[in-house]
Design brief:
Collagenase (Catalytic Domain)
Length: 150
């Protein structure tokens, strides 16, 4: 049996309340649903200023963004190793605009970052639509599974 993946969560913002255990379960759920073994996922929830700095440093783009994901996997080690950075302030603002809870929007960002690392892309309109449908489907299934456990 493979070792249980290590999932680390760091919260450096105050715009969205972070439920660490729920996010850990979400990461494991998405990996199982996509059939991708995990080794390590380091998830950071940051504010706009920090995200803008990371966006500029790693993507050479100005301004903030919702999620950045980095594949840190090593060729001869099993499982995905990754760092995902999501912006709590962007999640809170977008959630208000879309009529969602901030935690839901944040979970969509986590799913989005994971799916990028698992081979999805959103470079074309059709690929983006496919990816967003999968994000919504995974979040709905995760939420339904959580409700069923109660």
């Amino acid at each position: 049996m493979p070792p249980k993946p290590e999932i680390l969560i760091c919260n450096r913002q105050r715009a969205v309340r972070v439920f660490r255990e729920r996010l850990c379960r979400l990461v494991r759920f998405v990996a199982r649903a996509e059939g991708v073994p995990l080794a390590l996922v380091d998830l950071a929830v940051v504010g706009k200023a920090e995200m803008a700095g990371l966006n500029r440093r790693y993507l050479r783009r100005s301004g903030t963004t919702d999620v950045l994901s980095f594949d840190l996997s090593e060729p001869h080690r099993p499982g995905l190793s990754a760092q995902i950075v999501v912006c709590g302030e962007v999640a809170a603002e977008e959630a208000r605009r879309r009529g969602l809870r901030p935690q839901q929007e944040l979970m969509l960002y986590v799913i989005h970052g994971l799916l990028h690392l698992m081979g999805y892309d959103d470079e074309t309109t059709s690929a983006a639509e496919k990816m967003h449908r999968r994000e919504e489907e995974l979040l709905a299934r995760f939420t339904a599974a959580k409700t069923a456990r109660r």
